[in-house]
Amino acid sequence: MKLPELLKTEKSNNKALIVFTREPEPGKTKTRLMPYFTQEQCAGLHSCMLRDISREMKSADADIIVAYTGGRNGPEFLRKTFGKTAVFIEQIGADIGARMKNAIKEALELGYDKVVLIGTDIPEIRAESVNDAFSKLDSSDIVLGPTEDGGYYLIGMSLVHPEAFEVKVYGTGSVFEETAESLRLADLSVALADKYPDIDTPEDISAYRKRMREDSSVRNSHTGRYIRDAARISVIIPVFNESGEVGCMMEQLREYKKECEIIFVDGGSTDDTVSRIGNAFTVISGEKGRGAQMNRGALESTGDILFFLHCDSLLPEGFDREIRRVMSVHDWGCFGVRFPSKNFFMLTNRIISNYRASMRKLPFGDQGIFIDRKLFFDTGMFPEIPLMEDYEFSLKMKQHGIAPGMTGKRLVSSDRRYGTGTKSILKTEICMWKLRRMYRRGVSPDVLRSYYNDVR
Predict the structure, then answer these.
(1) Dist. CA 132–CA 143, nearest whole Å
(2) Beta strand pairing call for 190-192 and 233-239
(3) 167 in helix, strand or coil?
(4) Is the N or the C terminus of the chain less surrounded, counting Cβ atoms within 10 Å?
(5) Cα atoms found within 13 Å of the Cα of residue 278, Cβ hemisphere only
């Protein structure tokens, strides 16, 4: 539809910025992210991306025109997001190329001297990049903004150039090259705008999470917060003859079944551990050994974040939110830990454990280690050794210079392996200290295993 005639004489700018998008509707937007995200999540993500783009583009030196499609009752969300100062036109054309061309043509017919069109898969776009694109039209026929996947997010011109819209298939990794070649053959000059990453696939989400950890502006955006909260957590619990503990763990995790993927990995229990779990949660079998069991669980999991948990732990309320919060800043992390015992030496153990994890960057398994999925596999998973698999893993991460984060809420770790009474606690703590020292000096884990009787 045509813009109101009034706009031809009451333009506030000689530059028009077209935001080319659709009304975010479940099942009709960001479909390349399904089934990684549900239909509703895809629409929610698109809505957040639009909010970020709207907020940023309002500071660009241009009038905003929203070229939309979709929406049973028109662009309700888009009108609310871009506000009264934006003008809305419906996309017209048989394919995306025709729709972009027609939108630009309509804006130029209103008397604008320069028109830049952007897509909405690039929530990190900055107004400065758009302003720079307008400036480049002073000396070039076309301006193109490439994306990192081989497409483009921005196209601008002062006259309609049909050659810019002759790509046969959009949505592929060759769109930018094909468009640039078509313009070259037409003897049209092309300037490049800033390159940006877009969000179309699960791999793009993973890359965005990495940028979140490095850039607070990305992390604190609408898109950043949405992607943080949408991260899927796989809780992986190795078990072996844990009949006395598994019931408590199941009870804790029951309310998180919708929010998290929960996997128990049995190492060949000879008691009724597996039957007690039954069909309440996923149970898989693996070779006995905590490292081997946790690796097996990781291989079978689907989560973005892998959370390795001892079966005798007590989780803080909202543990999943704590993990997501830390993982929006760090590549891996752990919980602060405390013990149920009030014995002085167990209190000292708590202080030492938390200091070791936060300051020396060496968390242990009883603190509940969680980590980015890709990073876990890229760094070789846990070593499958009889003892010290968590210590060796943390040492390896430290050698790579990847520091862990720590939650504010604390996980309660069982003190059963320390026995009862001060003498038993001290004896166990001294034994653990000696074992770590021997391990650092090169003593085989198979030898160390004979010195330590782990009751878990």
Answers:
(1) 10
(2) unpaired
(3) coil
(4) N
(5) 5
In this prediction, residue 8 carries a pLDDT of: 43
How high is the mean pLDDT of the chain?
Answer: 93
* 30 contacts: CB under 8 Å, gap ≥ 6: 37, 42, 43, 45, 46, 199, 200
Q: How far is CA 55 from CA 68, 81, 302, 352, in A?
A: 18, 9, 34, 46
- For residues 369 and 206, is the Cβ–Cβ distance under 8 A? no
The pLDDT, as a whole number, for residue 419 is 83
d(C-alpha 454, C-alpha 449), whole Å: 9
Please determine, for residue 245, whether its predicted confidence score (pLDDT) is greater than 80.
Answer: yes
Radius of gyration of the chain (CA): 28
What is the reported pTM? 0.89
CB 182 within 8 A of CB 164: yes
User: What ranges make up the beta strands (E) of 164-303?
Assistant: 190-192, 233-239, 260-266, 282-285
- Residue 426, pLDDT above cutoff 50: yes
Q: 332-338 and 405-412 as β-strands: parallel, antiparallel, unpaired? A: parallel
Closest of 121, 123, 116, 119 to residue 53, by C-alpha: 123
CA distance 18 to 21: 9
Structure tokens at 337: 């830990």
Sequence-distant (≥ 6) Cβ neighbours of residue 135 within 8 angstroms? none
Stretch among 228-242, 297-311, 441-455 having the lowest mean pLDDT: 441-455
Q: What is the mean pLDDT of residues 287-302?
A: 96
Band (pLDDT 50/70/90 cuts) for residue 166 is confident
pLDDT at 449: 80
Alpha carbon 57 to its chain's center? 24
CB 112: neighbour CB atoms within 10 A? 24
Tokens, residue 198: 């877009």
